[in-house]
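Predict fold of DUF192 domain-containing protein; 162 aa.
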Amino acid sequence: MTKKFLPVILIAFFLAALAFLFLPRQNDSKLLSLMSTPTLKLTLAIAETKIMVELADSTEAMRLGLGERDSLPENEGMLFDYGTKRPAVFWMKGMRFPLDIIWIADGVVVQIDEKIPHEPGVAEQNLKMYPSNQEVDSVLEVNAGFTKKNNIKVGDLITIAN
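Predicted 3D structure, encoded as tokens:
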């Protein structure tokens, strides 16, 4: 009788092993959803400068931001659109390169923080915080030096480019 069930037991064990190796585990669900969901990109115009931006369109994308990336292509950025005005605070958790942060309210640049350094090896609780100096409805992260190179300044209008 044992010989009859041995192939069935072996097949069941094999299928269970495959399922363990290839089916997503609960901890992987957020990562899998980020990897499988196409990221919305659009082109913005800031004064005369066009920039391709990735929209941080979920809570997880906003939490991660540009963290854990090695670089950002030139003339690209990440846009955080809150929908309504609110105070905002950013930090450089997981960042591997410096940034300029452009704070936006009603389609107008209201604040620029330039050349914010990444902080490798700094404990999370010791990371410097970068607050908006007024309520904003959007924030744009770009490579450090982008705002100076492109003469972006407070008061510039930001629009969706064609």
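The chain has a mean pLDDT of 82.
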